[in-house]
Amino acid sequence: MDSRFVRDVMLTAEPPPLRQRGFPVWIRHNLFASTTDSLVTLVCILALAYVVPTLLNWLFIQAAWTGSDRSFCATAVQGGIQPDDWSGACWAFVRAKFSQFIFGRYPIDQRWRPMLVGILLILLVLPFLTPYAPRKNLNALLLFIALPVVSFFLLYGGFGLPVVETERWGGLMVTLILSFVGITVSLPLGILLALGRRSRLPVIRLFSTTFIEVLRGVPLITVLFMASVMLPLFLPDGMDIDKLLRAIVGVSIFASAYMAEVIRGGLQAIPKGQSEGADSLGLTYWKKMYLIILPQAIKLVVPGIVNTFIGMFKDSSLISIIGMFDLLGIVRFNFSDPSWATPVTPVSGLLFAGFVFWIFCFGMSRYSGFLERHLDTGHRR
Predict the structure, then answer these.
(1) How far apart are CA 340 and CA 154, in angstroms?
(2) Are 334 and 100 in contact (CB under 8 A)?
(3) DSSP code for 16
(4) What residues contact 251, with CB distance under 8 A and at least 6 apart?
(5) Using an 8 Å Cβ cutoff, are 211 and 193 in contact?
(6) Where are the beta strands (DSSP E) in 6-96?
(7) Cβ atoms within 10 A of the Cβ of 38, count?
């Protein structure tokens, strides 16, 4: 072979041509790559140009931001408020009722108690969700064991604190309490139900299967209705169960049935060799599940677990059927205030409630994505 035709020095890499990089190239490749893409892009641009200015004008420019009653949400008052005189969004209503949206009818002079519970929750949740935070076992013990006990006495009363009945609780506080307890209870209970449904013992398998299928076959509102109306009929005379406790139990067992099926899907995805390898090492059933099977199964179904948590957080609004008012319930309750009766008040209140729900659900979704990337060590390319 003639070595005169073989290069002995490699050429240095050169940047791509200017026409193949930059924002204009991104637009051409992603928005106008073909005739169909161009038509869809133009239609979307026209729709946004028609909707967005009107929406921004109603939400911010013409909105009423301050005021003490319905008259501040009117743009003109000439011998009385006319139907066309109302402003854009009535954020003055949200501002005036904000503390009630957060705490419900909790006494104003005692609201430092739920605020303290919220601060403790944040201080314990943040390190628990941080992957490399130290002393995870202590953190989990404080978060799931100590915090609920301390929070109960802080919120309800006792040890020198005045008692505040749960009927006066409401707003975002109840939504977070219901969601936190439901998440804490439904995950371990769902794991036990999933293991029970795969058990070789007929009694345990039948009980778990029946429990899961019955609860998955009825809507949550039916479970809450049964807990509120039917349960007291089976209790002895003079005995009653707190409404909030009924809601917590109903939501927790309902979510655990769905959680069990999510976990069972992860268990079925684990190769049989993992279980056989654990058996060959002489591990007991519970050690095999705790050390080998469950960590792999839960890692595979993180999106499904978080999706169940998000659904439970949003379904907390159904507790209004038993006389409790979460965030959405307390917002709707304030629509009946005659001093704020305007055509724009309900929409403004519902937009605020929807935004709060979206913030929490979006945060859980983003953390789910982070957790998936952090745990995805066995499938990286």
Answers:
(1) 33
(2) yes
(3) P
(4) 178, 182, 220, 223, 224, 312, 315, 316, 319
(5) yes
(6) none
(7) 13
Which residue intervals of 270-344 are DSSP H helices? 272-280, 285-288, 294-300, 302-315, 327-333
Domain 92-106+164-375 has CATH 3.30.450.40: no
Write down the residue that tokens 């008259």 correspond to: 71
How far lies 266's CA from each of 81, 298, 304, in Å?
Answer: 60, 6, 10
**Tens digit of pLDDT for each residue in 238-284?**
777 888 998 999 999 999 999 999 999 999 999 999 999 999 999 99
What is the amino acid identity at position 170?
G
The tokens of 332 are what? 């709707």
- CA distance from start to end of the chain: 39
Quick check: helix, strand or coil at residue 161? strand
- CA–CA gap between residue 214 and residue 234 (Å, rounded): 20
Q: Which two tokens stand for residue 182?
A: 């439901």
Domain extent listing, the chain = 92-106+164-375
Q: What is the pLDDT of residues 44-94, one digit of tens each?
A: 999 999 999 999 999 999 999 999 998 888 865 434 555 556 778 999 999
Question: 360 with 345: CB under 8 angstroms?
Answer: no
Half-sphere exposure in the Cβ direction for 369 (13 Å, CA): 5
pTM above 0.85, yes or no: yes
CA dist., res. 20 & res. 81, Å (int):
60
pLDDT in tens, 209-235: 999 999 999 999 999 888 887 777 777
Instruction: Round to whole Å and give the CA distance between 51 and 56.
Output: 9
Q: Which of 157, 57, 59 is nearest to 107 (CA)?
A: 157
The answer to whether residues 308 and 293 touch, using CB atoms and an 8 Å cutoff, is: no
Residue 77 has a pLDDT of: 45
The rounded distance, in Å, linking the Cα atoms of 369 and 78 is: 55
How far apart are the C-alpha atoms of 172 and 179, rounded to whole Å?
10
Q: What is the torsional sign of CA 212, 215, 218, 221? A: negative
